[in-house]
Amino acid sequence: MENSRSREPGSAATPGKGNRKARLYEDLKHQILTLQLGPDEDLDELDLCRRYGLSRTPVREVFRRLSGEGYAYIRENAGARVAPMNHATLRHFFLAAPMIYAATGRLAARHFRPAQLALLRDTQEQFRQAGESGDMAALVLKNNRFHEIMGEMSGNIYLQASLNRLLVDHARIGHTFYLSHDGDMAERQRLAAGHHDQFIDALAAHDEDAIVRITFEHWELSRQNMEMFITPAGLDPHLPHERAETLST
């Protein structure tokens, strides 16, 4: 996948200012969700102005938009930084996420439109293809988009805002544990794809209770994955016998 952090947007045929500003916004979102820009990393205003051919005003407008959506935060007289992921952030995430996902799913079953369900199916197919091809960045982004569409289906602006903020951190944590290539993680990806299929079937049947049940099953899988990220297995303190002999000579 192209690394959007390294490309030079202003080096091609110069697009209109509005297009360059929109591209900056989308690029920064992508870089934050895929950890190309790490939590609490500084957003270099002057470098972005140069690379995107923009003045400070539109760049700062993008920063304010990202801040309002939970991707970044702005320090008075000190610029913008990527939203952190600290203990307090993760605690709030774990407390709120199951409730918000379940409420969103229940309302989605009541209010979705056929075109939205078709879009959800297309996104699920892209999610599955990303997993099969080993494209972890696409896997994380398509998973986010799947749940984002469910938020749109709910038709509730308050839940959508809360869900979208959750998805920022869900994606960043997810990008870390999806990078694992062991068999257990492949099985977890398969289970996640299966849950997505069940969501689609339950939505098509307008089965709210089934969606809530699947939501908590899906969340439990996500919670286990996140615990692997937060509390990884410790390093083995014992050196192999051969290595220990080498060091002692």
Tell me what the structure shows.
The chain has ten helices and three strands. By secondary structure, the protein is mainly α. It has two domains: 9-82, Orthogonal Bundle (Arc Repressor Mutant, subunit A); 87-230, GntR ligand-binding domain-like (Four Helix Bundle (Hemerythrin (Met), subunit A), Up-down Bundle). The protein has a three-stranded antiparallel sheet. A hairpin with a 3-residue loop joins strand 2 and strand 3 (79-82). Helix 1 packs across helix 3, helix 4 crosses helix 6 and helix 4 (87-111) runs antiparallel to helix 9 (208-230).
Annotate the secondary structure layout:
Blueprint (H helix, E strand, L loop, with lengths): L16 H17 L8 E2 L1 H8 L3 H14 L2 E4 L3 E4 L4 H25 L2 H20 L2 H19 L2 H21 L5 H22 L3 H23 L10 H8 L1
Antiparallel strand pairs: 1-3, 2-3
Radius of gyration: 21 Å
Question: What is the name of the CATH topology of the largest domain?
Answer: Four Helix Bundle (Hemerythrin (Met), subunit A)
3D shape: globular
N-to-C SSE series?
Answer: HEHHEEHHHHHHH
Instruction: State the end-to-end CA separation.
Output: 47 Å
CATH second-level architecture of the largest domain: Up-down Bundle
Tell me the count of domains.
2
Which segments are poorly predicted (pLDDT under 50) over 5 or more consecutive residues? none
The protein's oligomeric status is single chain
**In what order do the strands lie side by side in the largest sheet?**
1-3-2
